[in-house]
Amino acid sequence: MAFFLETLIGGLMAGMLYALVALGFVLIYKASGVFNFAQGAMVLFAALAMARFAEWIPKWTGLDNMIVANLAAFLIAGAIMFAVAWFIERLALRHLVNQEGATLLMATLGITYFLEGLGQTLFGSDIYKIDVGMPKDPMFLLESVFEGGVLVNKEDVIAAVIAAALVLLLTLFFQKTTTGRALRAVADDHQAAQSIGIPLNRIWVIVWCVAGVVALVAGMIWGSKLGVQFSLTTVALRALPVVILGGLTSVPGAIIGGLIIGVGEKLSEVYLGPFVGGGIEIWFAYVLALVFLLFRPQGLFGEKIIDRV
Fold first, then answer.
1. How many whole angstroms separate alpha carbon 28 and alpha carbon 245?
2. Helix or strand or coil: residue 122?
3. Is position 110 within any domain?
4. CA angle (182, 184, 190) in 5-degree steps
5. What are the pLDDT digits (tens) for 48-81?
6. Residue 249 included in any domain
7. How confident is the model at residue 210 (pLDDT cuts 50, 70, 90)?
8. Contact, 213 vs 27, CB < 8 A?
9. Residue 150: beta bridge partners?
10. Total domain count for the chain?
11. C-alpha R_g of the chain
């Protein structure tokens, strides 16, 4: 039972991180109808910016306080992501809204390669580390209930708490603020929102900036766990099944989908992997997403599209 709980908790922690990346897809798609394939590149670019500025600031200022340096690097990286999001929306996607899906796909793919190249030019292509002080040693829970307790990684717990806090803040933002309600109105009907005076261009800039902040937090967490390297762009590929499972237009769906994928990957690898030679964790999410595409393409919480003739 203790081993099952360890696997379950590990899956929930991983699922929260998947949900955090998936949120970037959902936010942009809800507000502008663009499926942002550049979200993985945004995560990488944000992580590179934070890692490099955390390294440069002590050299430039003589600071030896890691907490202050990391905080300053986070704020600078956040400002950079705001600028990147603004330029992407203003120079590229603003002119492509309501275009064919293939056109938008090619645009976001082009943005992906542009950000990867720009990140390599500005920040280098080595493997960098982000050390935000999260403890990496394990801890044991429920020692009085199970012999030896339940082994949990402290870093995973803190990362999951950060991801959950950001998800909660975004939920409150969408539900309780005027801007959040405007975003929801734009998501429901662009033309109706514009007819009552909601400025679409400003809303799209806001949602791209929010997606940039989400990418920064995701990049910081994944960079702390895995190191900042160009393989971070593949994190977005792990979030794609989450979006398909939860629904492209649902913030709660991204959360629930992330938890289902995270838990499913861990449990299937541990309990089914030995019978098929292992490796289930690599493809489990994609097979589950394929099943949903066949039988419920709108996902668990997505809106079903009905065309009437």
1. 17
2. helix
3. yes
4. 80
5. 999 999 889 888 887 777 788 888 999 999 999 9
6. no
7. confident
8. no
9. 141
10. 1
11. 20
Please give the residue range of the domain that contains residue 203.
Answer: 2-234
Tokens of 260: 């289902």
174 contacts: CB under 8 Å, gap ≥ 6: 180, 181, 183, 184, 251
159, part of any domain:
yes
- Range 214-226 average pLDDT: 84
The model's pLDDT over 250-263, given as tens digits with 9 standing for 90+, comes to 778 888 888 899 88
Give yes or no for a contact between 160 and 13, defined as CB atoms under 8 angstroms apart. yes
Are 41 and 110 contacting, i.e. CB atoms less than 8 angstroms apart? no
**Residue 187's pLDDT band (cuts 50, 70, 90):** low
What long-range pairs does 61-64 form, CB within 8 A, spacing at least 24?
none
**DSSP tag of 303:** P
Q: Answer yes or no: is 252 within a domain.
A: no
3-54 tens-digit pLDDT: 777 788 888 888 888 888 888 888 778 776 777 888 888 888 999 999 999 8
In this structure, what token pair is assigned to residue 227?
A: 């190191």
Per the CB < 8 A criterion, the answer to whether 266 and 281 are in contact is yes
Amino acid sitting at position 111:
I
pTM of the model: 0.84
